[in-house]
């Protein structure tokens, strides 16, 4: 090995961790220590708060925190907080919001808020015998055993909605599930769901061991493999949509309203039938969703996993958005499965998360679901609008221009020169370098 393993890294102080990393991996170069220090917050208490969000923390990793204004959502005008590093995401969302503000804005519908979790277990028992045991004994015991866990959630209007026994033996020998659905109200609910499921596993073992209808051999065959929520929540879903008459679908690209609508619908249809395109299409949707998810302290990995699983729910990966043109009316919508919370986790701790939620009017979890779906739909509209008219690179590279110039060490005066230079040109990396070299050679 080119380096030595470390023992007890997590027990080292923050400075101890940094010293070890710099000496072991960075040749003792203290410039790297300075980089880490630059991102520490000067407020020691605030820095300690951030340090304790995760494990083995040595610094903070900054992302741009931007605002996309002019979102008219269900009659309310909002400015969306977006934490994202990719050029043009905030700009595209803002442009789409402005496009739809005088056409009725975005409308949303909460289709369902059901979340799921499973106790996965193995038992060598005839299916009908296990089902009888579940129906007449176990199900009631599971609800009773979790009453103390669910009390607070039930007081807020949530709790366990249903518990089912699922026979999966056709796919794996002796494999069954206790499949439970939950309403977690304004919390994302992961800890609540997992606590309930772990109690299911314990109660299952206890009740099986006491059941007189099972032989000792059948009892001994029980294995509770795991108790865990599912991040696939196809029944926790929100719809966001926009629509207008084609005659009102004005676009400044120079093509007619009818041609714009036709090409836009074709682009969506291609994403519905072609997985290679659908992957990039949905990635663009998640640009908008994830940026707001991160800004509001929610789990963007869970939203990604769920969205992509949903996109492949029919056995083929497809678009999350859809478009129709009927009787001269253009309609564009998304059905987004998403599970988020506005209480618990970072929502009560991270100062910028609290700012984001305050900016959004302290939404309920369902209202935040709507906002996230709208953000994804707006981002997708902006991307498709560019793709079927001017092309994606014109806007994206113009936003990326400053990244290129910063890498080259351009002065503020030189940056202003490039803004003027590319006012009527498409930005390309090659063209920026050529013009930069020409400018510096003068």
UniProtKB/TrEMBL annotation:
Its EC number is 1.1.1.88. Pathway: Metabolic intermediate metabolism; (R)-mevalonate degradation; (S)-3-hydroxy-3-methylglutaryl-CoA from (R)-mevalonate: step 1/1. It is an enzyme of class 1 (oxidoreductase). Keywords: NAD, Oxidoreductase. One of its GO terms (molecular function) is hydroxymethylglutaryl-CoA reductase (NADH) activity. It catalyses: (R)-mevalonate + 2 NAD(+) + CoA = (3S)-3-hydroxy-3-methylglutaryl-CoA + 2 NADH + 2 H(+). InterPro entries: HMG_CoA_Rdtase (IPR002202), HMG_CoA_Rdtase_bac-typ (IPR004553), HMG_CoA_Rdtase_cat_sf (IPR023074), HMG_CoA_Rdtase_NAD(P)-bd_sf (IPR009023), HMG_CoA_Rdtase_sub-bd_dom_sf (IPR009029). Gene3D superfamilies: 1.10.8.660, 3-hydroxy-3-methylglutaryl-coenzyme A Reductase, Chain A, domain 2 (3.90.770.10). PANTHER family: 3-HYDROXY-3-METHYLGLUTARYL-COENZYME A REDUCTASE. Belongs to the HMG-CoA reductase family. This is 3-hydroxy-3-methylglutaryl coenzyme A reductase. It comes from Chryseobacterium kimseyorum.
């Amino acid at each position: 090995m080119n380096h030595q393993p470390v023992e007890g890294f997590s027990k080292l102080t923050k400075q101890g961790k940094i010293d070890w990393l710099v000496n072991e991996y960075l040749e003792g170069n203290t410039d790297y220590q300075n980089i880490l220090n630059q991102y520490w917050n000067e407020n020691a208490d605030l820095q300690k708060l951030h340090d304790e969000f995760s494990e083995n923390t040595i610094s903070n990793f900054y992302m741009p925190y931007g605002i996309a204004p002019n979102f008219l959502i269900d009659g309310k005008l909002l400015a969306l907080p977006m934490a994202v590093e990719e050029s043009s995401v905030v700009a595209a969302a803002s442009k789409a919001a402005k496009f739809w503000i005088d056409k009725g804005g975005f409308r949303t519908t909460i289709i369902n808020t059901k979340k799921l979790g499973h106790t996965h277990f193995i038992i060598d028992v005839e299916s009908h015998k296990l089902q009888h045991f579940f129906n007449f004994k176990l199900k009631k015991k599971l609800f009773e055993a979790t009453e103390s866990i669910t009390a607070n959630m039930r007081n807020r209007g949530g709790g366990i909605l249903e518990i089912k026994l699922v026979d999966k033996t056709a796919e794996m020998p002796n494999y069954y599930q206790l499949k439970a659905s939950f309403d977690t109200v304004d919390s994302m609910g992961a800890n609540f769901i997992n606590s309930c499921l772990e109690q299911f596993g314990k109660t299952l073992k206890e009740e099986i061991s006491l059941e007189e209808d099972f032989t000792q051999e059948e009892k001994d065959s029980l294995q509770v493999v795991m108790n865990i929520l599912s991040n696939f929540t196809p029944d926790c879903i929100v719809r966001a949509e926009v629509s207008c008459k084609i005659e009102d679908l004005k676009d400044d690209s120079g093509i007619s309203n009818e041609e714009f609508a036709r090409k836009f619908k074709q682009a969506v249809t291609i994403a519905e039938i072609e997985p290679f395109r659908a992957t990039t299409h949905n990635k663009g949707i998640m640009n908008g969703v994830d940026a707001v998810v991160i800004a509001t302290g929610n789990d963007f990995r869970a939203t990604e996993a769920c969205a992509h699983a949903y996109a492949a729910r029919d056995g083929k990966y497809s678009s999350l958005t859809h478009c129709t043109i009927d009787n001269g009316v253009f309609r564009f919508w998304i059905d987004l499965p998403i599970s988020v919370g506005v209480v618990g986790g970072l929502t009560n701790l991270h100062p910028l998360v609290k700012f984001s939620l305050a900016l959004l009017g302290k939404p309920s979890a369902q209202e935040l679901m709507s906002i996230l779906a709208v953000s994804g739909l707006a981002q997708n509209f902006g991307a498709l609008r560019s793709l079927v008219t001017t092309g994606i690179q014109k806007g994206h590279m113009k936003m990326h221009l400053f990244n290129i110039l910063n890498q080259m060490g351009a002065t503020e005066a030189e940056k202003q020169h490039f803004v003027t230079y590319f006012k009527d040109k498409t930005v390309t990396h090659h063209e920026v370098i050529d013009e930069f070299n020409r400018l510096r050679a003068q």
